[in-house]
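Lab notebook page, bench 4
Experiment: in silico fold of construct C2
Operator: M.H.
Input chain length: 359 residues
Purpose: comparison with the prior construct
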Amino acid sequence: MSEPLSPPPPSPSSPQAAPVDRFYQAIGTIQGIILLDEPAKVQIGDQVFPIFCPPKLKRKITPDQPQVLRVYPKGHQDGLRFQLSRIPKIFDPTPRFTLNGCWCSTAGGDRLMIFRNLRSGMKKNWRPVGLPLSWENAPPTDGRFWQIQALLKEGKLVVIHAEGPYPPPPRYNPFAPPPTNPQPQSKTRTGSPDIPPPPPLSSEDIRAMATPAKVEVTCKINEVPPHRLVATGVVEFFLADGDRIFTVRLKQKQFKKLAENGFTHWVGAISGQLGAATPTGFELNNASLQVFERKPKGQDNANPEQPGQPTEPATAQSTAPPADKVKKDVQQTTATKANHLATTRPAQVQGKFKDIQFR
């Protein structure tokens, strides 16, 4: 393996060389057989690697036949995995990888970190790629930029040529503020006068300005915490919220409600006043306990009807009166209306109801 050093700086008499446009990249060519089982794999010789195949490229795959594949290498917990980029029409490719990244030390070991280029912008679900390398006489992992040629041998990316180190090229930072393009304003606005900052306050001033208040804290848990008996009928346990740990003491009778609540899913609310500071946090004074049942999402309070099961029609008991009674009521109602109309409007009623006979 040859690792050429950085080129010497140009002499004062020679013209200044143009800056080289370096960028992050990880791509290579392999020849293997893609197995379209779920999850998809690629067989290279006697070794098998996971591979992701975009749907638009699956129709170009020839099952059980070796093909030339252009792939992106990715780091994997068991070694390497690949992402299919394209299927070139090359008969005998050189299985070589071009890797341009920063040589760094990570929790998983030394990795060549491939970041996203600044000019590429942000892409959904894109994360930096850390590639493990088999690098003889590797340089220090100082985060500097290297341009590497590697071969895939025995499941490892073996470095055969490296150039560097160079300063890292600019990379995309998702947390950087977006660039602004200020527009010239037609009218100049007079800004508000600057208010001088207030003078700093001493501890005595802050105490004098403080308003009395009562601080109460509520801690919610959904499992029975480890506990111990510190006195007769008193249980002590600890609740952690990040680096803050609250020391809680409850009566054994109250704690029994938490341990034997009888709910499948529950939430325990422990409330109290903020007490004295401890080496790990604070004490929770005058603690009280409430246990609530927590129902899973999507479950109604009432018993829902099971879909797909026919409901039986309700059997209704007839409360209708007999037919003879209905006929008699109709006759009485009709006669009453006729008499009323005959009294109020005799001319019309007599002509209208003169042919009506009541039986």
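Observations: The chain has a mean pLDDT of 77. The two ends are 123 Å apart (CA to CA).
Next step: discuss at group meeting.
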